Amino acid sequence: MLPEKATVDGIEQPILERWSADDVYAYKREVSGEIYSIDTPPPTVSGSLHVGHIFSYTHTDLIARYKRLRGFNVFYPMGFDDNGLPTERRVQNYYGVRPDITKSYISNYKPPFTGTDGKNLKANEYDSISRANFIELCEKLSKEDEAQFKELWMRLGLSVDWKYTYQTIDKRSRRIAQKMFLRHLSAGLAYQMESPGLWDVSFQTAVAQAELEAREYPGFYHSVAFTSTDGSTVEIETTRPELLASCVALIAHPDDERYQKLFGTTVTSPIFGVEVPILAHEAAQMDKGAGIAMCCTFGDLTDVQWWRDLKLPTRSVIGRSGRIEVDENSAAWITGDARNFLLKLNGKTAFSARSMIVEELKAVGALRGEIVPTKRMTNFYEKGDKPLEIVTSRQWYIKNGGNNDELRKELVKRGEELNFVPSFMRTRYDNWVLGLSSDWLVSRQRFFGVAFPLWYRIRKDGVIDYDKPLVPDENALPIDPLIDTPAGMDESMRDIPGGFTAEKDVMDTWATSSLTPHIACGFEEHTGQTTHADFEQLFPMSLRPQGQDIIRTWLFSTVLRAHHENNSLPWKNAAISGWILDPDRKKMSKSKGNVVTPMHLLEIYGSDALRYWAASARLGVDSAFDEGQMKIGRRLAMKFVNLAKFVLSMQPTHVLEQGAQEAFKNAFSGITEVVDKSMLANLCEVQRNAFEAFDNYNHAHALEITESFFWSFCDDFVELVKKRAYGEQQENVQTGSSISAENALLVALILQSHLLAPFIPFATEEAWSWWNTGSIHISTMIHKPTAQPDASVDGELFKLVSLVLQLVRRIKSEQKLSMKTPLKTVRLSISSKNIELLKPALNDLCMALNVVGKLEFVESTSSEIEVLDFELAQ
RNA sequence: GGGUGAUUAGCUCAGUUGGUUAGAGCAUCUCGUUUACACCGAGAGGGUCAGGGGUUCGAAUCCCUUAUCACCCACCA
After folding, report:
1. What tens digit of pLDDT does each residue of A29-43 get?
2. Is the shortest CB-to-strand distance from A280 to strand B under 7 Å?
3. Which of A285, A298, A495, A814 has the greatest count of CB atoms below 10 A from its CB?
């Protein structure tokens, strides 16, 4: 039934209900046929949505809808990322709880608060609960957050099959993350090692190279004098005098003539009186500071490198708290009064220890010159706000080529196999792989995450045997080693000599996220059936859509895991979306407070309008937030439903009753007029080009050419054939076939509905619903490109007709005449070839332009067409 | 310091392997229209393609160079 007035207002809710009820976007598991599978990014549920999400998720949905129209069986799942620090913090504050790995699991636990801002609680007011209870609370809260996300995604029109959803902390994800870890372990791809590494003192966890962020941090150069055996001094510059007690050597470049004769000699540190060697190493830079550096345990990663390469002793005074940690039994390398001084520093922060040492340096006359302020780049954990320290700890690693050139080369090769869109994004991948300096540190000393499925034996003497971890059976996964026990042992043997102890660390959140293809393609949680056949069908997946900022993390780590486990890429294509910038061209982010929330935009402009805005930006290109584009999108949707109403209102009743499928089949034979065929020749070409653009992941180009044809169709073709379609006559003019006009309009409407459907799915569905029962989004009509009605007629005539229409309209406009003003004659200068070409369209032209007399042609040798003069009718 | 991308009309952006007079939308101005669409239509004005140099019959497009912007990597002496 055609509506009285066509509109896009209020159409979304009923359409969404129909889509759900009919399960329109179902992945057809049992059907054979070409599959297109999408590794949808699971959004972080602890954050709120902003327009940037709409942007990139729309890009993915455009592809999903296009592939469906082309006959692919599209697998489009949705995940939710609730694993990791952001959720951990949110759950703490929301429920007023703190995880504590010494607590036991309580069934039916009720948290003290719900929805409270726990930031206002004092430390002792939090409820300390077990990791398992904490994970339960997280799953509960995430479910609530997910409902909101889902509502917004649906409102936006994402064609996700909601039967296939997962959380990165749910049982299935934990099982797969643990299973994959155990497989890496047995393949020798995962290992543990005690070594110095970057440590966040606020979060009390080790962090990985991928999570580092270099920030400018203020510091002060102190010039400190060390004393040689002959009484002369060697001055070094340091920004960290508080590490003086940790000094193990002074190091200069082997080519540095200033220090060459000192290599092999020793000097004594001021205050502490420790004798340290002067050594040569190529990592020392002659042009930095004094050109000779104080090497400590550990001031920075270069210190670690020197410590390793030069086999230097370990002299640690800074602990995991970021404070000086020394007691009676430590720091044996320092003796006498100096030792008493050092003990006085115990418990001081690096900052206050520094000022005490500086005072002491001044007192002993070892501080030379002025203290010079400086700004330097320092490594931070991306979520932290204190500079990272380096501490020694036992951690788990996964090999990533960071210290293995063969693996590195293999991973670069994987990158070459992957189709990056746009292709220059591959450079970022290459840069990252080639710049890796260590294996991937995957253990975190946190609480909320996937546990390592491991225990260790405790020997009779109470020493923990880390070398041979106890592992569970794969079929028992997921397990929590804090609750479950290893085979052949029971709870009574936990943490006693001769018994076992749990691995207490959890995996880094990326260690789970890097498995999203494995999680998404495993079906057993949904169907109760084995996964293998499904996995074989879906993996490697077709597409990974994601942001450019997480190439080094999510994209790389996923490639790495699939390389290790499956010896293949995880997907064939990677579609990288750009940023959304605010109007000042700054990146939109929560911390800058310039985020625009999407729900009210959806309400003002409608889903199709927001999708239009997102669709008009190409992949990989940053885009300014622009409400103007949304208005245009809304206009397009409105224009479309009005066009549809017009075209359909012209059709005989039986055509509307038979529906689009039948009508489309029958309409071609009724298209007899050459100009109608020519218009459709153009449209078929647009369709081919749009398909090609989509196949190359250039949705913006597909939209541009489709939209451009659409407006020219409305302005020129519809105006051209309107009167013929109505069956109207004009004096002195022979009208053509109105049947042909009706059929051409109908075919053009159907084809354009399909081309526009990915961009404005609601408006196209609305118009479709007036005369069809099913959804246009799973229509089978354009699985193959549409053949033009008459291969002997090309698009030139319609282009020429459009041009003549424009020329005459311009004349009328310049003369400030109404477009309806009747003209007696119009004389055109035009080439003989074009005169011939134009002949079949003359009647339509005269009617559309209201030329009551005739169009006269003056033959011209130029290919240009020009209006020579015209005469108004009486 | 190394790298990637960008720079085209007042604004947002197209411009396919080099090929007539560089395009679109928004905004501006003019005019029109109420039986598909006033959430409308027709038309006009507006550009030294960031600057400089080169290759070529011909450059927005290829090469070199400079500048500006954004981002990535490295940089704790």
Report:
1. 888 789 999 999 999
2. no
3. A298
